[in-house]
Design brief:
Blueprint: H1 2-11, H2 13-36, E1 38-39, H3 48-59, E2 62-71, H4 78-92, E3 97-101, E4 120-128, H5 132-146, H6 149-152, E5 157-161, H7 163-197, H8 200-224, E6 230-231, H9 232-262, H10 267-292, H11 302-333, H12 342-347, H13 364-374, H14 376-390, H15 412-424, E7 432-436, H16 440-447, E8 456-459, E9 463-466, E10 469-476, H17 483-494, E11 501-504, H18 506-540, H19 544-569, H20 574-577, H21 587-617, H22 622-652, H23 657-689, H24 698-706, H25 708-714
Parallel strand pairs: 1-6
Antiparallel strand pairs: 2-4, 2-5, 3-4, 7-10, 7-11, 8-10, 9-10
Helix pairs in contact: 1-2, 1-10, 1-11, 2-8, 2-11, 4-5, 7-8, 7-9, 7-22, 8-9, 8-11, 9-10, 9-11, 9-21, 9-22, 10-11, 10-18, 10-21, 13-22, 13-23, 14-19, 14-23, 18-19, 18-21, 19-21, 19-23, 21-22, 21-23, 22-23
């Protein structure tokens, strides 16, 4: 079937490319509305913290806040008092501004709005509720008027922050990081592919497939946005996964096509043979990646489930793009993509593979496999020990919701938030907010009991935000994402107001997220592992091989998470890597790296096992099949790993922490998997097991023989006569 698909795309190349061109144009047009629809949080969520935030979004008449930090001033000066009072009064006249607070509204001045060192003050503007775009317009008008203090008070420094500007900076930073990563990764990928293939035309095929895949995914996301809230995280997943898989699949197909042309087949015949073998591997890999992401549905968290849906969709889109675009482009370029002269073969790194049987035992990867097979037990133990040692920082891991520290240190909104905490004892975004359907007086009476709590620094006066809806903010004396903060949230929920109420804020969100992750993780892991074992069973007919591969991937993932904890929680290598030390891992990034790294590692497993199984079925013993399979797939896997690391490293260069964590996590996972696992552990373990690799219970063996999926994988490519002249 896949050979027929390749033949159809090769023959009807112009129609196929026209269709993808229309899809690409649609994807470009969809990009702007997608960014406009980005939401930081879903409005429907089983977490109490999210439900409380949703109630405020729907019903509150009070919107976000703008905070002006006026620094390097004498707060006792009459000139400063007059300038601040007049500018604040002007800002209060901006349409949509609810009120503006500053120290000089009371006599004596409010000490809570004056810095501890007496050299700075705060001006707080509360906005009426509105959509994000309208609030940003109001915030811009407020900052423009308060910014006049720079001219009125000589030497004054004015910086702006608050939740409205924090959200705005976050969205702008995320969009900028994503765009920059794409613009950097694609040219670098093209350069690597030119070195790999020794030619621009062959190198361009996987890149064009990747572009088509990502743009098609944008159309897909636009469709999703009609039914669900789009999170920035979902967009990053689609971009990262779409680029990586499309380039990987295109690389595999073009490499196999070049093998066939080097063997003397015409372009049409080479496409049919490549698509019936490598195309089958791509299709199986796409299904494997999609299946690996199904575990995310086990989390009762809307963001995780929508990300799973988007990830599965883009994996299938990448598979379709890889199976159609390269075949059509080969139809245009013909044998110019193949290996036509010694100069190109010398310039490339030899992805065409061995064309003579003798080379299967003399290549680099075959020699490496033979060296491993001489001491398989020692290699297995040593590799596992190293990977477990790399994973030891995971034992100290903590979770942190991405807050203000996720923005770069150069962010003005982050600087204001940090100075509010250090110099004013205030939080830019309250760690705990209680929302209740009652009046402010009743809520104040309830909140008074928490003023003496050792975890509480201050309880702010309750505020009526809508008829019969009030809020009270609780400032913490302990780290807002530490154990003491979570314990406080539990105690508040156990002794909540008599009226209907919700406890929200960052501390509450982290508690809710942690509990849901712990509840869903066993099911997510179980579903992922079961699906992976089942798919690999239908590929190999063995129960032992899937189980050993899954165990290896789990060990390599442990090493990956150990590196993430070391870098982002403890700050190791944060200087050379230019990463943000956030003191913990973002829960979404943690689960995303687990799901996508596991999926990508199984991707390489399929690449390698497809070759090994071919040789076993041709009559070779397991040790020989492993050597030959590694030799034939080793260069492809290595090149694919290099390309993926290039793509993911572009995301490590982002200035927002969640993207950094996802990029570094996936880059490390690919590096570990393509080296320690595929080159050392797999040959060693399969050599130790020998014929036992291919064992399966009789009932499963009969099921394997009767299943259409396994029959499709057992089909051998047809062997048409070789062309006598290039076509």
């Amino acid at each position: 079937m896949l050979a027929a698909l390749g033949r159809v795309c090769f023959t009807h190349r112009y129609l196929v490319l026209l269709g993808w061109l229309l899809i690409a144009v649609g994807g470009v047009l969809a990009t702007e509305p997608i960014f406009a629809k980005l939401e930081r949080a879903a409005t429907s969520n089983p977490m109490e913290s999210a439900r409380g935030a949703a109630v405020l979004d729907r019903e509150s008449e009070v919107g976000g806040h703008v905070v002006a930090l006026v620094d390097r001033v004498d707060v006792t000066s009459a000139e400063v008092r007059q300038a601040v009072s007049e500018v604040a009064a002007s800002a209060a006249q901006v349409p949509g501004v609810r009120q503006v607070l500053h120290p000089y509204l009371t006599e004596p001045p409010n000490p809570g709005l004056i810095a501890n060192d007496g050299r700075a003050l705060l001006v707080l503007a509360a906005l009426n509720q509105a959509d994000a775009a309208e609030q940003e317009e109001r915030a811009d008008a407020v900052t423009e008027r308060i910014g006049n203090l720079r001219d009125r008070i000589p030497g004054a420094q004015v910086k702006f922050g608050g939740d409205v500007l924090i959200d705005k900076e976050w969205d702008e930073q995320f969009s900028s990081d994503l765009t920059r990563a794409e613009l950097v990764s694609l040219p670098l990928t093209l350069v690597v592919l030119i070195v790999v293939f020794g030619g621009v035309i062959a190198a361009g095929l996987p890149v064009l497939a990747a572009i088509g895949s990502v743009l098609a995914a944008m159309l897909l996301l636009l469709g999703f946005s009609l039914f669900i809230d789009l999170g920035a995280e979902m967009l990053s997943v689609v971009t990262v996964l779409g680029l990586a898989l499309s380039i990987d699949y295109g690389l595999l197909l073009v490499a196999r096509y070049r093998e066939e042309t080097a063997a003397g087949y015409s372009s049409r015949q080479a496409v049919e043979r490549a698509w019936s073998t490598a195309g089958r591997t791509v299709a199986f890999s796409g299904l494997t990646v999609a299946a690996a992401l199904t575990g995310l549905f086990m989390f009762d968290i809307p963001t995780m489930r929508t990300t799973a849906a988007a990830g599965i969709s883009v994996a299938l889109v990448a598979m379709i793009a890889a199976l159609t675009i390269p075949a059509a482009l080969i139809g245009l370029a013909g044998r110019r993509i193949g290996v036509t002269d010694g100069r190109r073969r010398r310039f490339g790194i030899g992805l065409v593979g061995a064309t003579e049987a003798g080379q299967l035992d003399s290549g680099f990867f075959a020699r490496l496999a033979r060296a491993v097979q001489r001491r398989p037990v020692i290699v297995t133990v040593a590799t596992v020990v190293v990977l477990l040692a790399a994973g030891t920082p995971l034992l100290t891991a903590t979770l942190r919701i991405g807050g203000i520290e996720s923005l770069p240190r150069s962010s003005e909104a982050r600087q204001v938030a940090e100075e509010m905490g250090e110099r004013f004892g205030m939080s830019a975004i309250p760690a705990v907010t209680v929302v209740a359907r009652t009046g402010p007086d009743e809520l104040d009476a309830w909140a008074a009991r928490w003023r003496g709590d050792k975890a509480v620094r201050a309880v702010e006066p309750a505020e009526a935000v809508a008829p019969n809806l009030s809020t009270v903010d609780i400032t913490l004396a302990v780290p807002e994402q530490g154990d003491a903060a979570r314990d406080l949230v539990r105690r508040i929920r156990a002794d909540r107001p008599a009226a209907e109420s919700w406890v929200t804020g960052n501390a509450a969100a982290l508690l809710d997220m942690s509990e849901l992750l712990l509840r869903g993780m066993p099911w997510a892991v179980a579903v992922t592992l079961i699906v992976m074992v089942a798919l690999l069973f239908f590929m190999t007919g063995s129960l032992v091989v899937p189980l050993t591969m899954v165990v290896m991937n789990v060990v390599s993932l442990g090493a990956t998470f150990g590196v993430l904890v070391a870098v982002f929680e403890h700050g190791w290598l944060s200087g050379p890597l230019h990463t943000l030390t956030t003191g913990g891992l973002d829960p979404f990034s943690l689960v995303s790296v687990f799901a996508f790294a596991f999926a990508l590692s199984m991707d390489y497993t399929v690449f390698l096992l497809s070759r090994v199984v071919e040789y076993v079925r041709s009559g070779r013993d397991t040790a020989t099949a492993v050597r030959h399979g590694l030799q034939r797939s080793g260069r492809v896997i290595t090149a694919a790993a290099v390309l993926m690391i290039v793509v993911f490293s572009a995301f490590v260069a982002a200035e927002s922490s969640p993207l950094e964590q996802i990029g570094l996590g996936l880059a490390v996972a690919v590096l570990v998997d393509a080296t320690a696992v595929r080159m050392l552990l797999v040959p060693a373990v399969m050599t130790i097991l020998g014929r036992a690799n291919w064992w399966a219970p009789g009932v499963l063996r009969r099921l394997y023989e009767r299943t259409a999926l396994s029959r499709a994988f057992r089909e051998e490519p047809s062997a048409p006569e070789k062309a006598t002249a290039p076509i």
